[in-house]
Structure of Shikimate kinase:
Amino acid sequence: MKAIYLIGFMGAGKTTVGKALSDKLEVPVIDTDEYIEREKKKTIKAIFKEEGEPAFRDYESQILRMLPKRYVVITTGGGIVTREENLTWMKQNGLVIYLYCNTEELLKRLKNDKTRPLIQQNKEDAITRLLMDRAPLYKQAHFTIDTSWLNVDQVVSRIMEQID
Ligand SMILES: Nc1ncnc2c1ncn2[C@@H]1O[C@H](COP(=O)(O)OP(=O)(O)O)[C@@H](O)[C@H]1O
Ligand SMILES: O=C(O)C1=C[C@@H](OP(=O)(O)O)[C@@H](O)[C@H](O)C1
Ligand SMILES: [Mg+2]
């Protein structure tokens, strides 16, 4: 089994779905954000504040390349594709799945979020703008699942159908 990479916007459910998918497939899951926070002993929020976004993108890119490439589910941060070479790399090394979610539902899921630095001001505008910029990148995934009207178990089932 090749690595499965979940990509998509903040709030699409990558971290949550990845954990459920790893249980189903009986393989480990690694979340790049959680990995970075553990490694750096800092929250994502603190890294953005103290070191800036480019430093975070460097960590993300480095860690991606260190992770296993077989028998694993890897859940990424929503901005990993902004370094386009990361997208190319994931597509070469595994199966890349885009978890899509519409803006209205993203807003609901992220309404109370305080941990994601890029959407703390003007949440709706920030989501709309970033999603528009990134959509062409996300769409290069091997396949897409629209999670807007699905619960976590249903998203996992859709993934299982696709990879069967
Ligand atoms: N399919 C879903 N339906 C409803 N809520 C969801 C769904 N997937 C995730 N969530 C919720 O949305 C929020 C963001 O999920 P998360 O897994 O952290 O997303 P991501 O890692 O893509 O940013 C969490 O509160 C989570 O419980
Ligand atoms: O889209 C982004 O630029 C980011 C997404 C976050 O991860 P999630 O997509 O898991 O929320 C986290 O990596 C950081 O706040 C930046
Ligand atoms: Mg996440």
User: Anything to note?
Assistant: The chain has one domain: 3-155.
